[in-house]
Design goal:
globular, alpha+beta, 51% helix, Molybdopterin biosynthesis moea protein, domain 2, three-stranded antiparallel beta sheet
């Protein structure tokens, strides 16, 4: 179990991925990642003029499906 300090530190260090990075990690095209964002399969945020995907979304996508 994490302490409150560890939880706060983890949230401050949360990483955001560029579309290109996400595409490389999932071995799909950047167009596919942008399509997933547009149909809300994954959540993304705009930081300045660029689209970023929170690490929590990346982790969610690799979790096994529960039936």
């Amino acid at each position: 179990m994490q302490t409150v300090y560890e939880q706060e530190l983890e949230s401050k260090l949360r990483k955001y991925y560029r579309v290109r990075e996400a595409a490389e990690l999932f071995s799909v095209s950047e167009k596919t990642i942008r399509r997933w964002i547009s149909v809300r399969y994954i959540r993304a945020v705009r930081i300045g003029g660029s689209v970023r995907i929170p690490s929590t979304e990346m982790e969610r996508l690799v979790q096994p499906c529960s039936e």
